[in-house]
Design goal:
alpha/beta; ten-stranded mixed sheet; about 325 residues
Length: about 325
């Protein structure tokens, strides 16, 4: 990727021929930069990476885009509302197609009402072993008021942080294969356990500070309070529903874009009844389609204070 090329430009160049949202989401999961630096000492070699998309996989994605019957069947008829579950099902479909999937979503219980944990994926690692992959798609905003860097990356709803998530993954979830309750249910011993993390990080005022442990080329965007949005560039916008948070947006030219005044009105109405930040795509027309140029979270004007209040409670 050229130094001046945004991730959106790279994605549109590589995958602009894909039209279906679920196929584009799968292409993003397979091809997007990792969120965590696989070589960083913080992760002690326990971060997985998919590597580049091989030509045969790219051809397969193009075929799926032309005929998504197989993918639609794997996703099921039920409408997905949870982004994490949607991403997991897409990855399970890919791992199964690769012939590597041994189990997906295998729950481990110590007793009927005592769930110890769940294996996101068990992948074939030879005749006598499986690999445990703990999978996550995360979206965090850098809250400059926090101290430790991973805890400074917080979820839009302030319910978690990258620090909290990674401690849970590395201290508890990746150890699930060694739990006594897991042994009778494992098809083969777990000989390796790693985290595969995809996502986007969002920074105030568009600054991108280098962070140890975070992959240098990760997907990123901006965040700002509603009163600060006028400083953002762009003339046309779309609000991104949660299931469209993965891949950069591509839509038909008939999609109802908003001008700046319309977007501000919609955001003001949403924030009047909800404190949840909104992910907005800055878009442009490219012939018969609309493409995402940049993305960012617009947060209510009191979001920084709420973030500070959450930090204070957690520090007590």
């Amino acid at each position: 990727m050229a130094a001046t090329e945004t991730y959106q430009e790279q994605f549109h160049r590589r995958w602009g021929h894909l039209r279906r949202a679920q196929v584009r989401a799968l292409a993003w999961l397979l091809d997007a930069p990792d969120l965590l630096d696989v070589h960083a000492p913080e992760w002690a070699g326990r971060v997985a990476t998919l590597g580049g998309v091989a030509p045969d996989v790219a051809d397969w994605l193009a075929c799926l885009d032309a005929d998504p019957t197989e993918l639609d069947a794997a996703l099921g008829a039920r409408t997905h509302t949870r982004l994490g579950l949607y991403a997991e099902k897409l990855m399970a479909f890919y791992f199964a197609r690769q012939g590597r999937l041994v189990a997906h979503g295998l729950q481990i219980r110590a007793a009927r009402n005592d769930t110890v944990g769940e294996f996101d994926f068990l992948l074939d690692a030879g005749p006598d072993a499986v690999e445990h992959i703990e999978f996550a798609t995360k979206f965090y905003l850098l809250d400059g008021g926090a101290g430790q860097q991973f805890d400074a990356l917080v979820g839009p709803n302030l319910a978690d942080s990258l620090g909290v998530k990674m401690r849970k993954v590395f201290e508890r979830q990746l150890a699930l294969g060694q739990h006594p309750a897991a042994q009778p249910l494992l098809p083969r011993p777990v000989t390796r356990a790693r985290a595969l993390v995809k996502g986007w990080l969002f920074y105030p005022s568009g600054s991108w500070p280098a962070m140890q442990g975070i992959a240098a080329g990760h997907c990123r965007g901006f965040w700002c309070a509603l009163d600060e949005f006028d400083a953002q560039a762009g003339e046309e916008f779309l609000v991104l529903p949660k299931l469209q948070w993965l891949a950069p947006l591509r839509a038909c030219s008939a999609a109802p874009m908003l001008d700046r005044a319309q977007l501000m009105q919609e955001l003001e109405e949403q924030f009047a009844t909800s404190g949840t930040p909104v992910l907005v795509a800055i878009v442009r027309r490219q012939g018969e389609v609309i493409e995402e140029v940049e993305r960012g979270f617009v947060v209510p004007n009191d979001w920084r204070q709420r973030a500070a209040d959450v930090r204070m409670v957690k520090s007590v």
